[in-house]
């Protein structure tokens, strides 16, 4: 059937990862490209948005359980606000989209479409914080931001407008701000590991790659199957630089005026890109049951003489599953054969399929099929609600194990420039090397391979030996650098 071929994925994940990824996103019904003339923008379809909502709910409840409240700020930022923090302007200026007119009238002051909101949130935090009793202050907003980068569109990975959350906090002390920074980083790691079935590496960005003005930028990095790293969420300790630029001060217990210590942290729909990229295959989308909009599809398989019995039975099984809180779809379409249905639901990423034919009806059983590897198991129909939860756990464990194996196999060591280049060129993944901390020692890797230092682990003091020298320049090493190509 030609329609079946149209439906299926034609690109290979292994050989054409970029094209394959785009095909999965489109054909699984997650997104469309934006209108002509608006390259870099995408339309997120309901099935794609449902995934984002699941991420949102999970993170939002973590935030709220740890003292964060949501707020909303304007999407436009006066130019003079951006200029108050020179580092930010230098960091973002070429990527900022500007509004110059309101209706027919030219604006007196240009308005930036927010590339991030520190410069509009900070002045209000300055108004809200007076005394140490107002601290800590924690606000988060769910919104979109715009960065006008002229690169090829890659849905959820590279788009000019993207959805994210940005949290902004102010604290009395440097250490409290550090605790906050790490709390958010840990929550991002939990999101990946417990909801998205993706193991991540936690670490800090090298000083030359931290957020402009930040004391420290921390990151969770996820390895994609094509050997590239995704910066999967960042949490910044901003020190007092923003507080000083925007007058976020408080009177301490001795009535002395002090600058607050601030943080900001963000996670975008890149998490969705990482999810799709990590688990999906040449049949289409693969999703962990934790996040799948439909966790189970029930497909009845009948002949004319068994149709009524099979459909009744399938209906009951689907009802039982729904009653026990499972997100279930019964595909009883007359006009499609079971093979077509299997392909379609595989393409859409439903993690578990239940097949019901005359044999299952007769034996009071169901056949359960795992999407990631096609494993097929016969199970009793009784207690199907409980049984299916065990299968969800198994499917999740399979996905996590595969991603973890890829990560474990992809961290390699090197101690010279040639070795770093050779290993990265041949295998991708991460190459660990002792590093002196100087940006100039990243160049000889960045130049030929477009790979960079994506992170340094936190426990450098323990991992970098006294006698270790920088793999590039031979000076004393102070950090362990993870080199990788990245998104
Ligand atoms: Zn060096």
From TrEMBL:
Residues 48-288 form the Aminoacyl-transfer RNA synthetases class-II family profile domain. The gene is proS. InterPro entries: aa-tRNA-synt_IIb (IPR002314), aa-tRNA-synth_II (IPR006195), aa-tRNA-synth_II/BPL/LPL (IPR045864), Anticodon-bd (IPR004154), Anticodon-bd_dom_sf (IPR036621), Pro-tRNA-ligase_IIa (IPR002316), Pro-tRNA-ligase_IIa_arc-type (IPR004499), Pro-tRNA_ligase_II_C (IPR016061). Consists of three domains: the N-terminal catalytic domain, the anticodon-binding domain and the C-terminal extension. GO terms for cellular component: aminoacyl-tRNA synthetase multienzyme complex; cytoplasm. Catalyzes the attachment of proline to tRNA(Pro) in a two-step reaction: proline is first activated by ATP to form Pro-AMP and then transferred to the acceptor end of tRNA(Pro). This is Proline--tRNA ligase. The keyword Ligase applies. Homodimer. GO terms for biological process: prolyl-tRNA aminoacylation. SUPFAM superfamilies: C-terminal domain of ProRS, Class II aaRS ABD-related, Class II aaRS and biotin synthetases. Belongs to the class-II aminoacyl-tRNA synthetase family. ProS type 3 subfamily. It catalyses: tRNA(Pro) + L-proline + ATP = L-prolyl-tRNA(Pro) + AMP + diphosphate.
